[in-house]
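Here is my example:
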Amino acid sequence: MTIMVVLSVIDIALLIAGLAFYLFVVGSQLTRIATNLEECRDLVREIVGNAEPIIPGVEHINRTGGVVAGALPLLYGMAEGIVSGVTPRPEPPAEPVPARPAAGRRRSRLHDGVGYVPR
């Protein structure tokens, strides 16, 4: 019975050591994540500080963009009218001429394949 008690104590000690190692690893990773998040927070504060002076300009740009976007359909219609008024009308196609061979009558090559030579 004493061997069973000793093995149980060793098993519990190994379990506690494994849990302590796991908690140490998780704690170090969480510390690294917290440090990175602090750096990100500082960067975001700096970006917000740099963006504050240009926010009114961005709002003005957005208003102007809305006016331009509202006028686009009218401008598009006017451009279509200009293009259709300037584009020349295509000329009607001429009467088709039958195709003629460039070198006169074609000679069949089947005669050469069988050895026949026409006179």
About this structure: The helical segments are 2-51, 55-86, 110-114.
